Amino acid sequence: SWIGGFAGGLYDSNVSKCCAKGVLSLPSSFDIAAPTEIGGFAGYSDEESSYANCYAQVNISGLVLEHGGGFVGESVESMYTDCYTNTNVPGEAARGFLGGFIGFSYDNNTLINCYSTGDVENGVCCGGFAGHLSSTDLLENCSWYTESNTVAIGDISTSFPYFCSSQIDGSYIY
Which own/partner contact pairs does 156-162 have at CB distance under 8 Å and 24+ positions apart? Predict the structure, then answer.
């Protein structure tokens, strides 16, 4: 299951000039029925969804069971342009990836001119911008700022046992 400040899950959607503000309160203990992907804007994004000029300013509290992101928890084949988030991703993840903008990027995501400013803590793999990126993702002119993370991307790998790197062009941290 998915939970997000704007929508739980989005498929083949075009979203522009929208925002999510508020509080997402999750269970504080392990519960198999609890949401698995959490995002300040969307919990899950799939099937060529696109987001332009959107932002999330959400307070997430509780336990994230799988993947959590300041903007999107898990994403597949989606495009993000000029989007940002100021969302703190909670301090516990039972078994997933946490990122300031995107928690887990599965495949073929494009992120252009996006940034995150929230804090991220204590996931299996944490990053100030992304918990996990796929080898087929494209990042261009993206950034993050957080006091709690020193790495921008927790994990850039999808095919084991070898290591793959995503295309990162002009992206930076500050």
Answer: 156/132, 157/132, 158/106, 158/107, 158/132, 158/134, 159/135
In sequence order, the β-bridge partners of residue 155 are: 132
What pTM, to 2 d.p., does this model score? Answer: 0.86
pLDDT in tens, 127-168: 888 888 888 888 888 888 766 655 677 766 543 332 333 445
Q: Report the candidate in 28, 79, 34, 86 with the shortest Cα–Cα distance to residue 52.
A: 79
Residue indicated by tokens 């700022």: 145
45 SS3 class = strand
What's the angle, vertex CA 55, arms to CA 147 and CA 40, rounded to 5?
70
Give the Cα-Cα-Cα angle 58, 63, 64 (nearest 5 degrees): 75
The per-residue b/e assignment along 20-38, b for 16 or more CB within 10 angstroms, e otherwise, is beeebebeeeeeeebbbbb
Give how far Cα 28 sits from Cα of 40, 76, 146, Å. 18, 28, 24
| pLDDT tens track for 68-96 | 899 999 999 999 999 999 988 876 655 67
3-state SS assignment for residue 153: strand
